[in-house]
Design goal:
This protein has 435 residues and is of the alpha/beta class. It has two domains: 202 residues, D-Maltodextrin-Binding Protein, domain 2 (3-Layer(aba) Sandwich); 191 residues, D-Maltodextrin-Binding Protein, domain 2 (3-Layer(aba) Sandwich). The strands form two sheets. Strands 1, 2, 3, 4, 7, 8, 9, 10 and 11 form a nine-stranded mixed β-sheet that branches. α2 runs antiparallel to α15 and α18 packs antiparallel against α19. The radius of gyration is 24 Å and the shape is globular. Belongs to the bacterial solute-binding protein 1 family.
């Protein structure tokens, strides 16, 4: 090969190398969010040591800014007294895929905060290590039984429940006064009436808001509209029922006789820097909103109040509120098992959970938390305990995450006008009819 050809080949190799590096690195040489190529995010070897031989625990979460700031502070304090903890906050919409791919490559973080709907799948695929011993060793570590059932599979416990978040109705007090109402909607009929009466997007006024991309918000809406859970079949399986379709159509387009995707987008804008639903609610441009306790607590002010969603309490057509939760899980290949266990014991202690509640406002899954002054003195304490007692959880199966992701995709297609309500309802209901 001539010298000229050798130089050409060398430049080609150099160019390809630069291109490859740029694909997996972000600005400043940091890994891109969601990149799990090799050791991009959670670098460790079999002994849990990094290339510099420093002992590190890799810990991945997917948290809102307020939650992440509280946990980051705790991790900083913990690292200052012992093992270094490297905390990674993954975008919520990417976390499932990133953690699953990292686990497939054998490069999962030592500790993962997983949505409870993901835990059984990760366990069945061999990505997790049982945590029975950690819970059994601490008789004071009892978790709420409902969320504990979501992290059990094949006779073992695969996650330590961190929190539970009920869906509720946040409402504007002034809007209630405008219609001489002393309380928020208590029935499906009243919910539809509030939505219709206050909905006028042409004047930037809105009725009862729900996030059009949140499957749990849709589930909560269905229950609030009176769709029951009979024989363990959740309301999502009844989406294609004519009665359900009529109620949804009335809610989505309260002033129009037929389905119109353009009106859906006008009536329920996606949250953005220009349209913050909490600001709209506080200023009285929005009458009420289906949301979670944690989001309410982080945005609480004198203009708004918290209430349970409308429900049917008796008879065969009972409905209720819905809960979601998250749990700490341990990779099946933790780098330093003893150090990971020590961190988890401290992280899941009552003292730590109450610190995180105080700053992040997500209800703890720790039973003893509800006897502490911090929670008992909260003005909404009775509401919290009632919601947890009455709340329902989706049955967790190995394919729960797949179903929820598919439902979110179908919701997106309907919202963008790529399929009508009837087609969405048929496809979405089919996801849940064989539970």
């Amino acid at each position: 090969m001539t010298r000229k050809k050798s130089l050409i080949v060398l430049f080609i190799i150099l160019g390809l190398s630069i291109l490859l590096i740029s694909r997996v690195m972000g600005p400043g040489g940091s890994p891109k969010a969601g990149s799990v190529s090799g050791k991009d995010l959670f670098a460790k070897n079999a002994d849990g040591l990094s290339d510099s031989e420093e002992q590190i625990i890799h810990f991945a979460v997917s948290l809102k800014p307020e939650e992440y700031a509280a946990l980051e502070k705790w991790v900083g304090d913990y690292s200052a007294h012992g093992v270094k903890v490297e905390l990674t906050n993954l975008p919520l919409e990417e976390a499932y895929d990133v953690l699953k791919q990292a686990s497939q490559l054998g490069e999962a973080p030592d500790i993962m905060l997983l949505n409870n709907a993901w835990v059984n799948e990760f366990a069945a695929l061999g990505y997790l290590k049982p945590v029975d011993e950690l819970l059994d060793s601490d008789p004071q570590a009892q978790r709420l039984s409902a969320v504990m059932n979501q992290v059990k599979w094949n006779g073992y416990i695969w996650g330590i429940p961190k929190d539970v978040d009920p869906y509720i109705l946040a409402w504007n007090k002034q809007k209630a006064e405008e219609i001489q109402a002393e309380e928020p909607p208590q029935t499906a009929e009243e919910l539809l009436q509030w939505n219709s009466q206050f909905m006028n997007p042409d004047e930037k006024k809105y009725g009862v808001y729900y996030h059009p991309g949140d499957p749990y918000a849709l589930l909560s809406l269905l229950s609030a509209l009176g769709v029951p859970s009979i024989d363990g079949v959740n309301p999502l399986a009844k989406l294609d029922d004519p009665e359900t379709l009529k109620a949804l159509e009335t809610f989505f387009n309260p002033r129009n006789a037929s389905w119109d995707a353009n009106l859906l987008q006008m009536n329920f804008p996606l949250p953005s820097k220009d349209w913050d639903p909490w600001k709209q609610l506080t200023e009285g441009n929005l009458a009420a909103m289906i949301t979670t306790v944690s989001d309410f607590k982080r945005n609480e002010n004198d203009q708004i109040a918290l209430s349970a969603l409308p429900m049917v309490a008796e008879g065969e057509r009972q409905t209720g509120t819905w809960l979601k939760g998250r749990s700490y899980a341990v990779s099946s290949r933790p780098g330093n098992e003893a150090a990971v266990n020590d961190l988890l014991r401290e992280l899941t202690s009552l003292n730590t959970e109450m610190k995180l509640w105080g700053e992040a406002k997500v209800l703890p899954a720790h039973v003893a938390a509800y006897s502490t002054p911090e929670l008992r003195n909260d003005p909404s304490y009775r509401s919290y305990t009632w919601l947890l007692e009455q709340g329902n959880l989706l049955p967790v199966q190995i394919d729960s995450a797949k179903r929820l992701n598919a439902l979110a995709a179908e919701m997106g297609m309907m919202y963008r006008g790529e399929q009508p309500l009837s087609e969405f309802a048929a496809k979405a209901a089919a996801l849940w009819k064989d539970e």
